[in-house]
C-alpha cells in the first residue's frame, strides 16, 4: 500500500505520556494491566479489588492505594459502576490501516458517538475474532472510562485504527481487496443472502442517521439484518454482534 503523507491511515506523532486517562471496572483494568503496550501510572482499589488484581499489579510494580468505595464514588460519580478500582494509564496508540491484520473481518464504525455502543461493539469484535476496529478520530468517543467499562476488557484486546477521513480509509481498504459491506436497514438484500468472503469490513453507522452517503458510496454492497417483527430497528452494537457472528459462520 502506498504511504503518502495524505493517506487516511497516517497517524500524528504524540507524546505517549500526554492525555492520561482513567479506567474503572475489573475487566477493563485487568486487560489494561495485562497489556504490555499500556503505560500504567497509579491505581486505587478497595481491599477486595486489590486482592483480585494483586498478580497483575505485582507484575507491573504497582502498589494500589487502598480506598473505600465512597472515595471512588466521589471521584467518578455515584452512578459509576467502578467495582472498587480506578486505574490511571496512558492512552492507547492508534494504529494505521497498514498495521491492521486484513486476513479476516474488520469492524468499521461511521461516526458512532455513544461510548456504550462503541464499547459493546468492541466486546463483540473480541468475542467473534475480528481483526480490528476502524473509527474516525473526530465524532467518536474517547477510548477511556465508560467505553472501556462497556468493552469489558476488549479495548486492550482489539487493535484500533482511528482515521481522519473514513471515506479515504475505506478506499484504501478496497485497494487492498477488502470487501466493504455496509449495513442499511432499507436495503433489499438480506445479510444472509450477501456473498461474504475474506478479507471483509463490516461497516455500521450511527443510530438514527445510519451510514453517511459518502460512506455508502465506498461500500461494495449494502444489506440489512433480517428481523421477524415490525420492530426492525436494532441498536448499533446489537447489529454489530449479529453481523460479526454471521460473518464468522458464513465467510468462506
Keywords:
single chain, 252 residues, alpha/beta, 60s Ribosomal Protein L30, Chain: A, Alpha/beta knot, six-stranded parallel sheet, four-stranded mixed sheet, 8 helices, 18% strand, elongated
Describe the structure.
The chain has 252 residues and is an alpha/beta fold. It has two domains: 21-89, 60s Ribosomal Protein L30, Chain: A (2-Layer Sandwich), CATH 3.30.1330; 97-250, Alpha/beta knot, CATH 3.40.1280. The chain has helices at residues 26-34, 47-60, 69-76, 115-127, 145-151, 166-175, 213-217, 236-250; strands spanning 21-24, 40-45, 65-66, 85-89, 105-110, 132-136, 160-163, 179-183, 200-205, 221-223. The strands form two sheets. It has a six-stranded parallel sheet, with helices on both faces. The protein has a four-stranded mixed sheet with strand order 1-4-2-3. The chain is elongated, with a radius of gyration of 19 Å. 41% of the residues are buried.
CATH topology of the largest domain: Alpha/beta knot
Tally of domains: 2
- Strand proportion, as a percent range, falls in 15-25%
Mean pLDDT comes to 90
Q: So what's the CATH class of the largest domain?
A: Alpha Beta
Number of strands: 10
What is the H-and-E element order?
A: EHEHEHEEHEHEHEEHEH
Low-confidence stretches: 1-7, 9-17
User: How would you classify the helix and strand content by structural class?
Assistant: alpha/beta
Biggest sheet statistics: 6 strands, parallel
Radius of gyration: 19 Å
What is the CATH-assigned architecture of the largest domain? Answer: 3-Layer(aba) Sandwich
Number of helices: 8
What is the helix fraction of residues, given as a range? 25-40%
Task: Identify the strand order in the major beta sheet.
Answer: 7-6-5-9-8-10
How would the global form be characterised? elongated
- Could you give me the name of the CATH homologous superfamily of the largest domain? SPOUT methyltransferase, trefoil knot domain
Question: Span between N and C termini?
Answer: 25 Å
